[in-house]
Amino acid sequence: MVTTDLFENNPKIDAFVVTDESNRFYFTHMETSFGAVVISREKNVFITDFRYESEAREKVKDFDIVITTYSKFYQKIAETLNEIGAKTVGYGEKMYIDEFTAFKTALTGFKLKPSEAAIQAKRAIKTEEEISFIKIAQQIAEGALKRAISHTKTGMTERELMAEINYEMIIGGAEKYSFETIVAFGVNTAQPHHHPSDKKLEKNELILVDMGAKYNGYCSDMTRTFCLGNPGSKLTEIYGIVKQAQEYAIKNIKSGMTCHDADSLAREYITANGYGECFGHSLGHGVGVDIHEDPRVGSGSQTVLQAGMVITAEPGIYLPGLGGVRIEDMLIVGDDSVTDITAFDKDL
């Protein structure tokens, strides 16, 4: 993992300390429930305990491996920083209050600088390897949905379809799900983050599936809305509006554009068609090690899209008591356009 750009963009920082689990994985490519990564210009150090020692020495490249115990954890971070000769230390702020108190106490004498934004900015630009993992995760998810949806029938519950999708992702090569798979039928599709229930599918009801697979530690994310039969004129109308809004946004998003402006591409289209108040969430978000990470592609976000970012485009319209539609694809931001890596069809 190349880290020189962290110091190019933050020249006054001598070393970074990373304790958050997702950030640790990003730098080490190893899942651990305990540890810290110390990054400096001279060397990188991975501090963990005996449970992960053999795996770390085998898998974590370009890092010195230091083994400690929970009681000596923060002391060991301080010792490592002293050995490096660091004075100004950037740290990720994703800590519980008691953890930060112990961290700050152990690092008395160092100048501490909050640096989560710098770490997240680095994570937002994906390497070719990261993009390859995300593409495979997306292919796994699409294959799983294709197989699972072919088994869908009236009388099946939301939970049953969720279980079918999850099973197909795992046997299809996913190490786990990116998040709790969302399956909603009928009026439940008007709840953007509905939790699957025992509701049974009836003919002519909408089916909304929001799902993602994880491969080599990287997530995919996709939403599709279907109907087993004919959903009626109103839901067919909003499906068409959402699909066209998404297509327009995907066609026009490019690097150099703010996330606010990218969000506006779909939002203004939906608003012009009379459903602006029914689109209550952002157009999208970054995807990588975490299912939601920088950038946030939403109203008011002045983050500028850059080549190498992986984002979603997921406009939606939700009509309580009737149903809702969301369509979500994953996009790789390029210099002049985006590449849609979601191949699953969008037929209602």
Q: What's this, in brief?
A:
The chain has 348 residues and is an alpha+beta fold. It has ten helices and 19 strands. The model has no long low-confidence stretch (mean pLDDT 96).
What descriptive keywords fit this protein?
10 helices; elongated; alpha+beta; 348 residues; 3-stranded antiparallel sheet; 6-stranded mixed sheet; single chain; 35% helix
Written description of the protein model:
This protein is an alpha+beta fold. The strands form six sheets. A six-stranded mixed sheet has the order 4-3-2-1-5-6, with helices on both faces. A three-stranded antiparallel sheet has the order 7-10-11. It has a three-stranded antiparallel sheet with strand order 8-9-12, with helices on one face. Strand 13 and strand 14 form a beta hairpin. Helix 7 packs across helix 8 and helix 9 packs antiparallel against helix 10. The longest helix is centred in the middle third of the chain and has 22 residues. It is elongated and about 70 Å long. 43% of the residues are buried. The mean pLDDT is 96.
Q: How much helix, percentage-wise, in residues?
A: 25-40%
Average predicted confidence as pLDDT: 96
The helix/strand class is: alpha+beta
Molecular shape: elongated
State the end-to-end CA separation: 42 Å
| Share of β-strand residues | 15-25%
Q: What's the number of helices?
A: 10
Radius of gyration: 22 Å
Read across the widest sheet, the strand sequence of neighbours is 4-3-2-1-5-6
- Stretches where pLDDT is under 50 for at least 5 consecutive residues are none
Written as H for each helix and E for each strand, in order along the chain, the element string is HEHEEHEHEHEHHHEEEEEEHHEEEEEEE
- Report the sheet with the most strands, covering strand number, pairing sense and barrel closure: 6 strands, mixed
How many beta-strand elements? 19
